Amino acid sequence: MTSEPSTQQLSVFLMFHGNAEEAMDFYTSLFEDGEVLQVIRARAEDSGWTEGTLQYGIFKLAGQQVVCSNTPPPDSRLHDLMPWHEFTFNPAMTIYIQRDSVEDFDKLYEALAEGGEIHLPARDYGFSPRFAWVSDRFGISWRIDLSADSAAA
Q1: Angle of helix 102-113 versus helix 20-30 axis, rounded to 10
Q2: CATH 3.30.450.20 fits 89-153, yes or no
Q3: How does pLDDT run across 49-72, given as a tens digit for each residue?
Q4: Nearest CA to 32 among 129, 97, 123?
Q5: For residue 151, which of 120, 106, 109 has the smallest C-alpha distance?
Q6: What residues have CB less than 8 Å from 126, skipping those under 6 apart?
Q7: Its pTM surpasses 0.85
Q8: What is the CATH number of domain 9-73?
């Protein structure tokens, strides 16, 4: 018996503590194809939430879909389901992006490093003509790589 393969899309899901919309706007501004695809905002009847606050968003970066949300505030009905305040980002989970030009690499590196933490500064580490690892001001870890073809050009 054969079955049709199911279509699945893998997406990164990022959970923020109140600044998901700021992060989403920042990330979409850094990529040529950056685009907000969907936003769900709190309504007046959503207890604990300020009306209009982003609850859930979907955006696109470098052809990939990313999902984000804000954690439920203390007076919301979902707040007691999980220890939301304990969930944080760390460099063990990172977003990898390869850039095709030194200019694109430098622009992205500088924007992500501003207000964040540099784990490995931008340089040649032997495995790449230019590589960097940073955690941005929101705590998201990024590994930025320059295409070997770009360096040879």
Answers
A1: 160
A2: no
A3: 999 999 999 999 999 999 999 999
A4: 97
A5: 106
A6: none
A7: yes
A8: 3.30.720.100
